[in-house]
Amino acid sequence: MSVTVTPRVPTLVPAGTAVTVPPRRSLIARVADRFGKALLQICVWTVGLFWLLPTVGLFIESLRAPADNSATGWWTVFGRPARLTLSNYLNLMQDKDILGSLWNSVLITVPSTVLVVGIGALAAYALAWIDFPGRNWVYALTVALIVVPVQVAIIPDAAVFRTLHIYGDVPAVVAFHVAFGLPFAIFLLRDFFAGIPRDLLEAARVDGGSELGIFRRVVLPIGRPAIAALAVYEFMWVWNDLLVALVFADSAHAPITYQLLSQMRTFSSNIDLIGPGAFVSMLVPLVVFFSFRRYFLHGMLAGSDK
Amino acid sequence: MTGAGKPFEGPARASTATGTDPARDPATTARRRVAVIPRPTGPDRPDPARQAGPPATVRRERRTVAAVFLAPALMILALLVAWPIARTVWLSLHDSAGQHWVGLRNYITIFSAADTRRALLNNAVWVAVAPTLVTVFGLIFAVLSQRVRLATVFRTILVMPMAVSLVSTGIAWRLVYDESPDRGVLNAAISVVHDVFRPASPYPGARPRDATVLSAAGHGGYASTHTFAVGTQVMLPLVGVARDTVPGGAVQAAAPGTTNGALSGVVWLDFTPGGGRVGAIDRGEQGLPGIRVQAVRDGRVVASATTDHAGRFTFTGLHGSGFTLALPASDFAAPFGGVSWLGPSLITPAIIVAYLWIWAGFAMLIISAGLGALPRETLEAARVDGASEWQVLRRVTIPLVRPVLIVVMVTLIINVLKIFDLVYVIAPDSSQDAATVVAVQMYKVSFGGSLDKGLGSALGVLLFVLVIPAIAFNVRRLRRDPS
Amino acid sequence: MSRKLQHGAAIAAVALAMVAGCGITAEAGPGSAGSDEGGRSLEVIGEWTGAEQANFQKVLNGFTARTHIRVTYTSGGNNVNILLNSRLTGGAPPDVALVPQPGVVAEYARKGKLVPLAGDAAAAVSSNYSDAWKRLGVVNGKLYGFFFKVANKSIIWYRVDDFAAAGVRPPSTWTDFISTSKTLADSGVTPIAVPAADGWPITDWFENVYLRVAGSDKYAQLAAHRLAWTDPTVVRALTVLGGYFGTPNTIEKGATQLTFTQAIADVFGQRPKAAMLYEGDFVAGEISKLGAARVGGDAKLFTFPSIDGSAPAVVSAGDEAVQFRDSPGARALMAYLASPEAAKIWAQAGGFLSANSKLDLSAYPDESSRAMAQALVTSSLVQFDMSDQTPQAFGGQAGADEWQLLTDFVAHPGDPTATAAALEAAAARDYGSRS
């Protein structure tokens, strides 16, 4: 397991390790070195602890009775761990709004991811391997759309969805996510597909394969790493989105982020619902994150390689 | 992409918009070794299609296929991205209902109305502070994580916040920032430190019953309004102490009785249910033990005493008159009350810290990749030349990874320009105005109470204009990158 | 719990923005849950969530049991209006909605989105509600709705033990109230928690003081902005309020970061920090939920004190039932909601006050709610929550100008004149944009 992006690069030896210390250094220098290293370890793990704190706090609050949370901080639990309870989670399982919104999140996230990957892959293949006039322009325009802020489109898009009678419903949210997910998907996949050895494709073409056949049998299998990276990335994006849902979904079709935000209105009294809700909503992306960590990080880093 | 929902949205995209020419830049070239996605092997030819020279019929057929393959994507992009951009520009020049032409009035409003100006100002603060802060921390963590055991665990911990929605993050940070030291972990931590340097007294919040006897003397202490001579007995009535918090052992207050050659008095809790007589000891009113009383003359403390369990104190060995009695602030030190992190004045810095928490892991990863790809020989050479680690970092490492740092910075700048969720979720209602940024304002103006699509569109266009440099960069790079 | 209890920035869909002026199409969009052809299934939208939602569901079940018409309830949470706007935009309004702001109802009525009450429903309202309440449902001479659930917002809750320790009794005049607070402070407790992180409790504070300082007529004029906020009566009310808030050792520290629900916990929770809390009857439910204090035992209430000899007055709020679609089922549901039988179901469950005069007060589970309900039903001096009648941008939502300015006023109560001027400037802008 490795989070580093350089897992296969053997030259990655941490600088300043013993290798670099000349043997002739004095005792004092070595003691200082040892001391410095210990200090370093302490520093680093303090940072790590600090980074865990907000999440741990939220988790513990989600396991405490609401009356406890409004009176004392979560850390007091270390004195009285017996006061932890699963009742918030049990209540959550009874809460139709939260459960419904989790399901809405699935209904929004899965189609969005599939569509972005599917439509994006087709377009990326065409842009990478089929010659046609204006190809570079199409590609350039698509790439230009990558950083377009959603704000510049939400008002007219709401009107579009209204005309289509999907406003407030799941398809509207999905359509918007697909639209704004495509430019990056095309960019990422085209870039990757372009690296496929030409001979492979030419061979398939010579064998009389149709373009669709080549796409399915050659491009998609080879492109799996990039497609997986994109899919994981897209999944997390859509799952965690708030703004698009806020604008295009009504409360009956609200995903979990939206639902949590509306529950936050009564923040302190609803922490018994928000705490576990937020934690459950974290679980899905965290599971995806740990299962596909490599892909996720690749997706994130894809741009910086370019 | 979206300005908001996607925590890890900006980077990948933005990074496409930046960086240096890989062909010419050694660091970038080096970085290519750490191929992010293991590419299929083969010649890295950017324009594979052109190389083919198939017959015309095949070309035509392929064009049809290309059209079919591209159609869904292009239709969606045209309908839901491209056309809406034009429509938004058009709307931004019209009134709130989108019916009457108003020219640039909406844009003028952006720069003249107080709330949008505040949003612009906050966005400026964000852009100026957050990307730099995150990059600096990312660099520090990247360097540290190279030298630490279990680096992967450390890195995983730091990257994890990125996988979580900003709404959940916001909820977690609302808890961290709670103003009450009883509930907010940050204020609780400060409270511990605070109490070490300024321990809380048993009587926080205690105050004189009667301003004619004692008055505030700065820093939370009190001093008598009159001066006294030896042989007098001074009554110092206090209130504001809950009876059940008076230390055990306190008994009915009692005047010490006049003693010649001494200055004496009593400090007591001058309160019985209903109030009791002001400045007189009623039955049931307890003395306040353990209060330090100072006798001051000519601005100098000449003696001090501590009250007994009946609240009595006596100064012996004093002569003459002109003594002021003072109750120093340490008698009343209040426990730490908590910093109002989410109040209007600290709200933006507070949210920026939460932002740092989310993004530092990202910056660390990218920078680590850059560091890992540095030519080790150069670093070794510098070390052998006797450079200290700090010098190596400053003179060699940082210049070498600069292109990567720029990638991270630009990525974050674009992300920060569009920031929405974090501000919207963390800032409580009473601080929303103080924390507002352009994207939040756009949402509120368009979909909140005033439903002004003209002004909302103008704000959308403004955001668009702010990221245009990045778009231009994207396209330019693309063309320079032979394609 | 009031609508505003769950206020906050605008959530929910967009809608109206896009379509201002567009007509409402008749066909149901995909978002519509209810109203199939046979009229056998209805949809109701309201603000209630959680326990309140469960209680309202009981009321609806009562209807289904009688008529065999299925009713689905959709919660709009704190932003019922935005949900309704969005539904209207999509051409799929609910059959019936319970709208917390009469101002919004009036807007819908004027735009022709509502069905005026007729037949059984109108008859039920006319026989079950007092004139003071009926008037509130009339727009342009037509009856469009009635208040199903109402709140008494002229109540101050207090801790019985703190009052006993300080030796004070519930005050009835403002002067008493001030001296009571001082005595409480002297006894070593913080007299009162003022949750200024949420703007709406402060607007309610102001409204109670204003109604007592300026009287009912001026109150109505100010609500309609026919009276300027710079009027001396406003300055006087702010001076009274600011004088109290500004008194040292009176309000709990950190007021501007104190949310309403946290304030309830700070007064009636495990670790009490203050002795009193001003807000409506709905506080009772929250106190019970915390489980540390018993309403009627440890937590009692007194009515908002009279100022300069003002007559007893009630600031109220409530959810107004209105009908968006006409069908026999929807009409039957409206008539049912206006009946004492429907009110009784929730009244017995607690946390509910009805303006229905026919509801037997014995339906209420405890003495305090009975007293509050009686004041509401019989009082001829009922004024509706002012901020609920103003344009949303002024007093109707999180971040609204009045909320923000009054929150600032709690933090800096020193200059009532300047606050009044700022309120007037905001009102001029916000009321202007509505027309």
Report on this structure:
Chain A has 14 helices and no strands. By secondary structure, chain A is mainly alpha-helical. Chain A folds into two domains: about 20-85, no CATH class; about 90-305, Orthogonal Bundle (MetI-like fold), CATH 1.10.3720. The longest helix of chain A has about 35 residues, at about 25-60. The two termini of chain A are about 25 Å apart. Chain B is elongated, with a radius of gyration of 35 Å. Chain B folds into two domains: about 10-35 and about 60-175 and about 340-480, Orthogonal Bundle (MetI-like fold), CATH 1.10.3720; about 205-330, no CATH class. In chain B, strand 6 (about 290-295) and strand 7 form a beta hairpin. Chain C is α/β, with parallel strands linked by helices. Chain C folds into two domains: about 5-150 and about 315-385, 3-Layer(aba) Sandwich (D-Maltodextrin-Binding Protein, domain 2), CATH 3.40.190.10; about 155-310 and about 390-435, Periplasmic binding protein-like II (D-Maltodextrin-Binding Protein, domain 2, 3-Layer(aba) Sandwich).
Count, helices of chain B: 15
CATH topology of the largest domain in chain B: MetI-like fold
Spatial extent as radius of gyration of chain B: 35 Å
Domains of chain B (count): 2
Order of helices and strands of chain B: HHHHHHHHEEEEEEEEEHHHHHHH
User: How many distinct folded domains of chain A?
Assistant: 2
* Whole-number mean pLDDT of chain A: 81
- Residue windows where pLDDT falls under 50 for at least 5 positions of chain A: 1-22
Choose one word for the global shape of chain B. Answer: elongated
CATH level-four homologous superfamily name of the largest domain in chain A: MetI-like
